[in-house]
Amino acid sequence: MGRFGFLDRFRIPTYNDPEQMQFGIVEIDYEKCTRCSLCAGACPAGALILVDKQPRMREVPENECAFCGDCAAICPAGAILMKSPYRFTRFYKTIDQGESSPPRL
Amino acid sequence: MAEKNRTEALDRLKSEFTETEKVILNRRSVRQYKKEQVPEFMVRRILEAGRFAPSSGNYQPWKFIVLRDAEIIKGITETVISLCRMFRAMTDYRRKGYAWLRPLIKVMTRLRYNDLHPMPFTAIPLVAEGKLGLWHGAPTVIIILKDIRGAANPELDCGIAGQNMVLAAHSMGLGTCWVAFSKLALEYSPLWKRRLGISYPYKFATSLAIGWPVGNPDGMITRQTHAVDWFENGTVKTIS
User: Which of A31, A80, B129, B185 has the fewest CB atoms found within 10 Å of its own CB?
Assistant: First the structure.
């Protein structure tokens, strides 16, 4: 995951540069999607938009997904798969995070 | 006998989350609410959960304001939207023709790294454009004020009280959402501060939207694991 270096303290990433700011990614199974649009309403980042009533993830750099999972949780059809979380660099570098997982017993 | 009961209880724990854990793990932020108001007794019960939160020195450095007045909720939302428009105009260097703003905003970001963190920064334009609501149409809002004279870290105590209320609400089948953006109106607008009576020694801490959810927003999801350093018996390991 990388360490937070001394220079990272002073370098602010450019928010619309996909090299420096990688936002979350969810995958939508259009076979299962029932076009209920609950997911787009649940998304706080405006990352899921409706195109012909079907959710689409906005393209980089407009995608600002926080990987909150509200879309996956609200989907009654279980059609949304949380793929990969956000990765930030420089001052906001993502550190000390590992693989994602559901709650573990 | 007691020994046997304990073994059974532990075996059960290994195969199933407790009811409390289920509420914690299933809680998702809710951003679509029904218009139907939450019964008053439920809000009072939620406030009770907040009242019994632990706080530094048991000083209870909080004051709760309940908003169930649609006109006030709408008014604050409008103020926040117009302030977000202003902030977007001043800060959003991602717009075409505004790249020259970038170095200046980066210096500001270094100084105010919480306020200009990428997540609020990218949310400001969404609020300004009406793509992200403030309290998302929730009919009940609880504003949490901190008593700045609190012991040690009153803001943290307010967070603990807030999470108590959130978990209580979800255990009753309600939905909630933490909304800190309301700070724009409740800390920076003298008009709203006067109208709601927010004055020294109280200061805005955060706010909660509460209401009946549309659909079934709660549920378990996948989330990042975090490295945990574990010191024991003279050794150290890192788990995730």
Answer: A31
